[in-house]
């Protein structure tokens, strides 16, 4: 199969390569329901040492910047309680943690979660966190610009490999909230 975006040597529908994904991501693909069929989620094999956005784009094409998203884990605090959430924004933008995220989660303070918390709670590798397969009770905040794209490149749960996901599929994730201006 040819990748819907980018120039990758190998592209496979995610349901056909579950062993390439972390357990939570594979489980989410198996249980996928919604208007976008699971086989439209495509796995592409990539070099794990090139997982970080700037290095990835250098090797796989700078034209992917406008079609790539980052998924970051945030910790929102209010009255001694901490809520973990995921934020999905285009790679060329930064998550508005202290504005949009803090207000959406009703938090007094919000910040990026520590790496060990993000990886420990998601079961995913740092540099590969994806919104597909996150804990069921987490809010998933998605910038509207991500949803508007035909396909978006995002982590696969591991540093090796990426997922190419139809933008509108992000709005169908459990607990997804699409927000204007999440990425600034």
UniProtKB/TrEMBL annotation:
Residues 65-169 form the YbaK/aminoacyl-tRNA synthetase-associated domain. Gene3D superfamilies: YbaK/aminoacyl-tRNA synthetase-associated domain. InterPro entries: YbaK/aa-tRNA-synt-asso_dom_sf, YbaK/aa-tRNA-synth-assoc-dom. This is YbaK/EbsC family protein. It comes from Streptomyces lannensis.
């Amino acid at each position: 199969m040819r990748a819907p975006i980018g120039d990758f040597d190998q592209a496979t529908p995610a349901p056909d390569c579950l062993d390439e994904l972390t357990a939570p991501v594979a489980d989410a693909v198996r249980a996928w329901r919604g208007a976008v069929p699971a086989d439209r989620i495509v796995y592409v094999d990539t070099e794990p040492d090139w997982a970080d956005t700037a290095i990835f784009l250098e090797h796989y094409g700078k034209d992917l910047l406008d079609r790539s998203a980052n998924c970051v884990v945030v910790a929102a605090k209010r009255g001694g309680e901490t809520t973990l959430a995921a934020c999905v924004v285009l790679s060329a933008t930064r998550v508005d943690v202290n504005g949009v995220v803090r207000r959406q989660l009703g938090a007094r303070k919000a910040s990026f979660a520590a790496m060990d918390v993000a990886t420990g709670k998601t079961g995913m590798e740092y540099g590969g966190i994806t919104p597909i397969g996150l804990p069921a009770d987490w809010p998933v905040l998605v910038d509207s610009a991500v949803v508007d794209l035909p396909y978006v490149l995002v982590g696969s749960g591991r540093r090796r490999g990426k997922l190419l996901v139809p933008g509108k599929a992000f709005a169908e994730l459990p607990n997804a909230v699409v927000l204007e201006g999440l990425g600034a």
